[in-house]
Structures are given as C-alpha cells and as structure tokens.
Specification:
The protein is mostly beta strands. The chain has one helix spanning about 1-25, and strands spanning about 35-45, 90-100, 105-115, 135-145, 150-155, 165-170, 175-180, 185-190, 195-200, 205-210, 215-225. It contains 1 helix and 11 strands. Strands 1, 2, 3, 4, 5, 6, 7, 8, 9, 10 and 11 form an 11-stranded antiparallel beta sheet that branches. A hairpin with a 4-residue loop joins strand 2 and strand 3 (about 105-115).
C-alpha cells in the first residue's frame, strides 16, 4: 500500500508540474526595462515639385503644407511620375539608442541617426533643390506596445510625441516632427533579453521640418534590441 501511495504522489506531482509549465508557457513575459538597439532604414521621399528643373531655384511656395503634387499613388509610386518631372529621391540611415519599456504597455525611445542622401536629387532649379549630402540627428518619441501569446510583440509611436534635432549636415539646427511612424512587429527571445522588429506593411508617413518643408515618405526599418542592466531585476514576467 505504501508503495502504491508513493507512486500516486509522484504521478500527481508530475501532473502538477506539467500543468504549471504549460501555464507558464502560455503566459508570455511582459516587456519591462531598458533595451539598447541598433538598426537600419531607407526611405523613398515624394516631396512634389514646383517650378522648372532647368530654371532658377525657388523658395518653398507652401511652407508648412505639402505641395499639391507630393505623396504617393494607391500603388505606392510617387505622384511625380504623373507630372513628367521626377522630384522623388531616396535616403538611408542607421540608428542607435535606448528603448525603455515601462511594463504597462507604454515606453519611450531616445536615439541618434546618421544618414546619407545620394543622387539623383531634385533640382538644381525649382523647388525642392539640393545636392547629395550626409547628416546626423538626435530623436525621441513615446510608444505603446503589446506582447502577444505567441511571443511576438507590436509597437506603435504615440501621435504627436516625435521630436528630432539635426546636429550636422544641411539641416543643422533644424527640428522635425512626423505624423506617425508606422507600427513595427517582432519576436522576443526565450529569455526575454533579445528582441527583433521591423515594418511589415509599407505606409506613408509625413515629416514636417522647422524651415517649412513637408515630405511624405515611405520607409522600411529593422531593429535589434538587447537587454541592458544587471541580471533580470527590472524584468516583470508575471510570475
């Protein structure tokens, strides 16, 4: 009888252990704490155009408002393909910074960006007009995020929270805002210390600069995050 009781107890304990493990697996960690990140991005910018590329350079005819022929068609090609004057251009940049998860579905980002704009660029006449260049900036914004049962996560910028200040290059001293950075989606490592994320859908976003320039663009971005700090003292995994 004693032998049977021992086996029954062992089986019951094993069943409880398996049940607890299944529950733990079904309860994904809530992201909390600071993560360092690096990443890369490139943007197709469609600012529209005014004037004549072979004529004199012009000032911005609509400061603070996007040009009427700026932006993109439904098939995501720039509107300038319909005008016969190509003003769209591309730039690329790399970023480094810290993303802080508060553990309640909110957080903040601070980082630095270094980028280049290569030929062809608009002009030399009309508006806009500028040669290839490089530059750097500091940026920050707030975000919301969700951790999904399958271990994936999604985050979106809080509208109106983005701020960027240009440190070097042609826009030195200017600032910029963006209506919305499109959501990114990624995965969480098993130990919660490494994250990845990227855009999954091309989406138009609009940058507005302190000098009055307004630029609709479509960007792709990818990020890799690593947990900062000692141990897991600032990780809340719900247990």
């Amino acid at each position: 009888m004693r032998f049977i009781k021992r086996h029954v107890f062992a089986i019951t304990l094993s069943a409880l252990t398996l049940t607890w493990a299944a529950a733990a697996a079904a309860d994904p960690p809530r992201l909390k704490g600071s993560y360092g990140f690096t990443g890369s991005a490139a943007c197709l910018v469609a600012p529209g155009y005014a004037g004549n590329p072979s004529g004199p350079p012009l000032p911005n005819p609509t400061p603070g408002v996007a040009l009427p022929n700026s932006g993109f068609q439904a098939d995501l090609r720039p509107n300038d393909v319909l005008t016969g004057v190509t003003s769209s251009f591309a730039n690329s940049f790399a970023v480094e910074g810290i993303r802080t998860f508060n553990g309640d579905g909110t957080g903040t980002v601070k980082g630095t960006s270094v980028g280049v704009t290569v030929r062809p660029t608009p002009g030399p006449g009309g508006f806009p007009h500028f040669p290839p260049a490089a530059g750097s900036s500091d940026f920050s914004f707030s975000f919301t995020y969700t951790v999904n049962p399958d271990g994936s996560w999604t985050t979106a910028m809080v509208p109106g929270s983005y701020s960027e200040t240009y440190l070097t290059g042609p826009r030195t001293g200017q600032t910029a805002t963006v209506d919305a950075i499109p959501p990114v989606t990624g995965m969480i490592s098993q130990d919660g210390k490494t994250l990845i994320a990227a855009h999954l859908t091309p989406t138009v976003e609009t940058f507005t600069y302190s000098n009055g320039d307004v630029e609709p663009r479509i960007c792709h971005r990818s990020r890799v995050f690593i947990k900062l700090g000692d141990g897991d003292h600032d990780r809340d995994d719900g247990h």
